[in-house]
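User: Could you go from structure to sequence for me? I need the amino acid at each position, not a summary. Structure tokens:
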């Protein structure tokens, strides 16, 4: 079962066993990278407060890892929805950079050879004449390397059922 904790006009979803503890704290909405997280402010010194996000309070942060919401909903703080991901997996699931020559992740235009070059992580996958075929090649290799956490250029063609 789950319960809701009100944060202004929003509500965070938490497990029953965490509700009593979390409901005793004061929660505010904190914007980080275009997402609104439930946060609590801790008094760390007389003149300084530190914000801690709900998901960080529920799970111990591991060195070199971040806590991620499986479903992408930062208000869903049920423990089954929270997972530790390494920073390399965080990069793997990130969207393509907007200033690249291709709109697809892992694909770049090779001006000299007049082909689309595909790379996933450090693995070179080849050159393609068609940008979409190049992006599909990236998707297949990204899923092979990173599984469910891979960013997919074409999620509707996903290689998994999750």
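Assistant: Here is the amino acid at each position, in order:
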């Amino acid at each position: 079962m789950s319960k809701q904790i009100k944060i202004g006009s929003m509500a965070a979803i938490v497990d029953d066993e965490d509700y009593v503890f979390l409901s005793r704290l004061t929660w505010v909405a904190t914007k980080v990278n275009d997402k609104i997280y439930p946060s609590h402010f801790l008094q760390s010194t007389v003149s300084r407060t530190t914000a801690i996000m709900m998901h960080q309070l529920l799970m111990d942060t591991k060195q070199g890892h971040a806590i991620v919401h499986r479903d992408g909903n930062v208000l869903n703080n049920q423990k089954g929805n929270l997972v530790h991901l390494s920073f390399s997996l965080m990069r793997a699931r990130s969207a393509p950079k907007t200033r690249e020559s291709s709109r697809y992740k892992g694909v770049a235009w090779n001006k000299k050879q007049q082909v689309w070059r595909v790379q996933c992580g450090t693995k070179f996958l080849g050159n393609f004449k068609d940008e979409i075929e190049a992006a599909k090649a990236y998707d297949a290799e990204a899923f092979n390397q990173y599984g469910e956490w891979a960013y997919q250029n074409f999620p509707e063609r996903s290689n998994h059922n999750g």
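One structural detail worth keeping in mind: Strands lie at 2-7, 10-15, 28-32, 35-43, 49-53, 65-69, 82-86, 107-110, 115-120, 123-128.
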